[in-house]
Every structure is written in C-alpha cells, then in structure tokens.
Amino acid sequence: MHYQTVLRDGLAPVVSALAADVDTAMPELIDATMHQILEQMPVYRDERFVTHAELRNSVRANLDYALRTLRGEDVPDVSQARATGRARALQGAPLPEVLRAFRIGLTEVWHRFVLLTARGENQDLAGLVAATAAVWALVDDYAEALTSSYRDAAAEVVVAHQNRRSALVEALFAGGAATEGTLWDIARVLELSVDGSFVVVAAETPRLGHEPLPKIELRLREAQHASAWRLTPDLQVGVVSLRDPSACKVTVDLLRETPVGRIGMSPVFSGLGNTSRALHFARVALSSMAPGSTGLVQFTESPLAGLVASAPEASVQLAHHVLRPILDLPGDDRNVLLLTLRAWFDCQGSTKLTSERMFCHPNTIRHRLRRITDELGRSLTDPADIAELGAALRALHLFPDTSHLPAPRPTRAS
C-alpha cells in the first residue's frame, strides 16, 4: 500500500500529531538509529563505504524527510531516498544492506509511535494502527524510490566500468608506446599480472555483433583463469592469464567445447606488454586454417602454416612459381596430381599410406609422384625442394581462389 492511499483512508490527522511529537526528540531518534545500524550491520560499523559521520548525516536527512511527510505532506517527498540510493550505488554498497539500514531508521520512528500511543490509562489502539499503516506504506514508497535510483546509478557504474575496461583492453591489444605506469593501471583494472604468462586467442565471429565464444570470460574465471576480451566486427579477441603450465590445456579444452569457426591461439608468452605481438601470432594461426573451416590452431602447432598465412601475397607468388606447371594442366590432371601431392605430404612421404588414403595401388601413386617431379622439375628427396613444395601447397590451401589466376609477373627494377 502506498502512502497516498493511507492518506485517503483518513489517517492523516492522527499520524501528523504523532509525527510532530516524535520530531521534538530528533537527536535521540538519530542516536538510536545509528546505534541499531552500527550494531546490526558490519558494513557500516567497519566504515566500508561511508564514514560514521557521513552515515549520521544521511540518517538525519532521511529521518527529517520522513517525519516531514508524516506530519502532513500530501505527497511523500522521496528525493532524499533517491539521493541515498544513488550515493550508495556509486560507493559500491550492496542494495540489500542499504535497504536494511533505511528500514532500521523508519522502524525506530514506528517504535516512537508505539510508545506515544501506549501512554496513559487509555491506550490509543486506533492511533497505533493508523501510525503503523502510515509508516509501512512510507517504507514501501521510500524503498521503491531508493531501489529505482540505486539501480539506475549502478547501471551507470557498470556501463562506465565496461567502457573503461573495453578501452584498456583495446589499448593492450593495440600496443604502442605505453608507459610502465599505464601498463600497471591496465593490469590492475583487468585483474591481470603484469609479469605473468599468457596466451592470446582470436576467434572468428559468425556474424557482426555475435560472440563466437559466449560467456568465455565467465567460464575461464570458473576454472580460476583471469582473462580480458574484446569484440570487434570480425573477431573476438582475448588475453588469458595462465597460472601454471597445465593451464594452457585447460584453456584449449574450454575453447573447443563449443564448435565454432576458426580460432587462433598465440604461443605462451611472458609479460603483459607483449600482448599486441601475441595477437598477431593468434591472427596468423587463425589464418592458417582454410576459410569456412572449424577448429583451433595454436601458432606453435604449425609454424610453416603461420609463416604462409602471415604473408599472403608472397605466399601466393611462391605457390604459382613452384606449382605453375601443374596448375596449367587440364582440370582432371591438375586435381589428381595436386591431391596426390597433398596426400603424400599428409602421410609423411609414405607411398603405402598415400595409396590407402587415395584408394589406389602403390604403383599408381609412384607413377603420379614421378609425373609430379617431371612436371615441376623438383625432387621429392631434396630437403630444399620438399620445403618449397610444402610451403606452396600450404599457400594454395589457404588461398584457393588464386589457383586459377595467371602467374604473377615478376617486377622489373627500373
């Protein structure tokens, strides 16, 4: 029941008279309220959010507004309750504790009403009922106003914190000439260690504004790993703090729980200041997977793929230079020879395993391999040729749309 409803019920005169009597003993009322709050609530007793002097001023203001309303205001003045709610939200005090302190104050008012209506031989039961209804209706109005104001201010705090956190994460990934003091500030806000061990993760977004790794920060926190994340139009990137060598596996397992698109991970690195460089490696690891594929690759798992992915134009030129004779063959011949060469690499150069994978006789595979070496003029026993062929196949796998293009023309020095 709201306070205005109580007034319409004809209870205002008796309540006004009682409130006027209580108001004459305001200092005693403030002391009693302070005593109850400090006795019952450690957060205020220990001055975690406000000093005792600040608390007393707040108690005085709220009691004064409450008694003024009870003395005869048609509409309860909830401005002080709103001010208290906002102030406590900005100070970080828990809402239940704030409401409890508020109720303690109005309960002290009610206790005074009980004493006043019990005086003399003729106890004023009707007056007590009226006062009780008025006080608790006012409690509801004040609590509603305080809660609304508190939540609005708390939302502002959250948004401000998120904006600052987002800016600091962006600065961390951008790198640049951050001073040591700035880095310490970033680490403090993000709850990361400046000198710890980390990995950076880059996950491809399925579409604009959608996280490929929803609630990943919470899931990592539950596994006792601090992290900080940022969503960009094409990536969700995060830096994860590793408590011990086994933590990297825990992170990988969490990332692989939900099938998403491509995820790249940097090598483990030390020092928060190296995050931007690690992000580059995570991007390279992601790019080492074919577009449209799903999975996670850490940079150290395939340094060759990472090298190829980090230099797309040079890698495409390498692929055309090394594989051009096969790329120029008719479609069926080209596809068969390229598939055979890839299978041979995947099977660690074993003709037997290659034949099993391609469902061919080993002699057929040997014939195709001889044709490949003849077409390319390269040997499958020379380490240098094998390295170039492997890099060229990687580039063709990562950038398949370029396989049909004419060979790049060499640039001539002027």
UniProtKB/TrEMBL annotation:
Domain RsbT co-antagonist protein RsbRD N-terminal: 27-165
Domain PucR C-terminal helix-turn-helix: 337-395
InterPro entries reported for this sequence: CdaR-like_regulators, CdaR_GGDEF, PucR_C-HTH_dom, PucR_C-HTH_sf, RsbRD_N_dom
Domain CdaR GGDEF-like: 178-287
Listed Gene3D superfamilies: PucR C-terminal helix-turn-helix domain
Pfam family name, one: HTH_30
Domain of life: Bacteria
Family (UniProt): Belongs to the CdaR family.
Name the record gives this protein: Helix-turn-helix domain-containing protein
Species, as recorded: Amycolatopsis rhabdoformis
